[in-house]
Amino acid sequence: MRGEPTPARRSKTELLLSGSSRFPAVRPRVLRWWLAELLDELAPSADSFAVRFVGDRTMRTLNRDFRGQEKTTDVLSFPGGMLPEGHHLGDVVISVPQAKRQAEAKGHPVDQELRILLLHGVLHCLGHDHERDRGEMDRLESRLQGRWIGTA
Question: Does the predicted TM-score (pTM) go above 0.85?
Answer without folding.
Answer: yes
